[in-house]
Design brief:
About 25% of the residues lie in helices and about 30% in strands. The structure holds NADP nicotinamide-adenine-dinucleotide phosphate.
Length: about 300
């Protein structure tokens, strides 16, 4: 089994940054990623809010640049599925490509947006269907959009979209919101927001771009069509934390609990990016988390020497 000072799980912005910082600090480091390096941003047509790119940058290009930079300083990168983690003297990470030992572990495995699982959603993702209002809201200037969901994210997204769009429908499957009261009050007072209660999305309509959504009233069963240019799905996220849940403290939705140094209560284990509790889920914050986690791992290893 090959042993490392630091093993990073996940190759999105948080993981790539942690890998860059660990290897530049002289730690023998390995990054394990199950798919293409880049994480969720690899699917974003344009990342317009990451500093340093005044014209914006495609998600795949940004992912590739981060990958290249991370690999510059002897960071080893392996494509493998992590199947188990155990703690002996150090951590043992079992993967589809064999086992690796780590003195410090940085968990940056990200999260997945929950999807509606309706026809048209996948096909029009990136063509009017979005899961991130902060990332994509600007593209819907003076357009009509719908936000799906009734939680804090949906209402925060709807308020943010109200700054760009001419009209924002909030489509919720029940007749009361899950979001906090203060957010609700702001949303109800907002002139551009209109609530469509007790309706579920049956289909996202449009050939090459979104043209509307087909709804079904959950109480009456009646169907209707809402004409919109964009659909922002905000029905929650699922952190990719299942394989860590036996060893790390997770909150109710599965996010890993860390302190401000990205340390978890387990000695030598750090978490960064979307997978950690209270993550703002932005590329820029994930990058900051990755740097912080790597610096904390470095400090932990030096203090143990
Ligand atoms: P959430 O609280 O789980 O809310 C998800 C919403 O989507 C709920 O309203 C739910 O409806 C609805 N939903 C779920 N599955 C659906 C489906 N298949 N079809 C239609 N609707 C569906 O998720 P979240 O809003 O992303 O928030 C996650 C966590 O982050 C929460 O702890 C939240 O407080 C926190 N957060 C806080 C802020 C803030 O403080 N500003 C901002 C964002 C997130 P039901 O209500 O009927 O279950």
């Amino acid at each position: 089994m090959k042993n490392y000072d630091a093993v990073i799980i996940g190759g999105g912005p948080a993981g790539c940054t942690a890998g860059l910082y660990c290897s530049r600090a002289g730690l023998k480091s390995l990054l394990i990623e199950r798919g293409a390096v880049g994480g969720q941003i690899a699917n974003a047509s344009l990342v317009d809010n990451y500093p340093g790119f005044p014209q914006g940058v495609s998600g795949s290009e940004l992912a590739s640049l981060m990958h290249q930079q991370a690999a510059r300083y002897d960071l080893e990168i392996v494509t493998a599925d992590v199947t188990d983690i155990t703690q002996e003297d150090s951590y043992v990470i079992s993967t589809s490509e064999g086992s690796f030992g780590a003195e410090a572990l940085i968990v940056a495995a990200g999260s997945e947006y929950r999807t509606l699982q309706v026809p048209g959603e996948g096909r029009l993702s990136g063509h009017g269907v979005s899961y991130c209002a902060t990332c994509d809201g600007f593209f819907f200037r003076n357009k009509t959009v719908a936000v799906i969901g009734g939680g804090d994210t949906a209402i925060t997204d709807a308020l943010e979209l109200g700054q760009h769009a001419s009209k924002v429908y909030v489509v919720h499957r029940r007749d009361e919101l899950r979001a906090g009261k203060a957010l609700q009050q702001r949303a109800f007072a907002h002139p551009k927001l209109e609530f469509v209660w007790s309706n579920v999305v049956e289909e996202v309509l449009g050939d090459t771009v979104v043209r509307g959504i087909r709804l079904r009233n959950a109480k009456t069963g009646l169907e209707s069509v809402l004409d919109v240019d964009g659909v922002f799905v905000a029905v929650g996220i699922t952190p990719n934390s299942q394989i860590f849940s036996h060893m790390l403290e997770c909150d109710a939705d599965g996010s890993i609990v860390t302190d401000g140094t990205m340390s978890t209560p387990s000695a030598g284990v750090f978490a960064a990016g979307d997978i950690r509790r209270n993550s703002p889920r932005q590329v820029s914050t994930a990058v900051g988390d990755g740097a912080t986690a790597a610096m904390s791992a470095f400090k932990y290893l030096k203090e143990r020497e």
